[in-house]
Amino acid sequence: MTKKFQVKCPSCKKAFNYYDSEFRPFCCERCRMVDLGHWLDENYRVPSKSPIDIDELEMALMSGENAETNSEE
């Protein structure tokens, strides 16, 4: 008995059985690749509440390097 769960493809909006697709959550490989292309072209972005402070970033990177150096000793 095959499970049936109808969903819409997030790319093309076509309805399909979720469990029949090896490209879940997409209906086909083409839709999966289109979505990947959007990520690679940076059309999708994860929003940030505030801009990154360069000084804080440098300090975090430096403390991470120090942690790696200390763990090797």
> For the CA atoms, what is the radius of gyration?
21 Å
Major β-sheet strand ordering: 1-2
* Total number of distinct structural domains: 1
Give me the count of strands.
2
Binned, the helix content reads 40-55%
Q: What low-confidence regions span 5 or more consecutive residues with pLDDT below 50?
A: none
Shape category? elongated
Give the N-terminus to C-terminus distance in angstroms: 58 Å
User: Can you say what the CATH homologous superfamily is?
Assistant: Erythroid Transcription Factor GATA-1, subunit A
N to C succession of SSEs: EEHH
Largest sheet: 2 strands, antiparallel
DSSP strand (E) fraction?
5-15%
State the name of the first-level CATH class.
Answer: Alpha Beta
CATH architecture: 2-Layer Sandwich
Assembly state: single chain
Mean of residue pLDDT? 84
**Helical segment count:** 2
CATH topology: Erythroid Transcription Factor GATA-1, Chain A
Q: What is the structural class?
A: mainly alpha
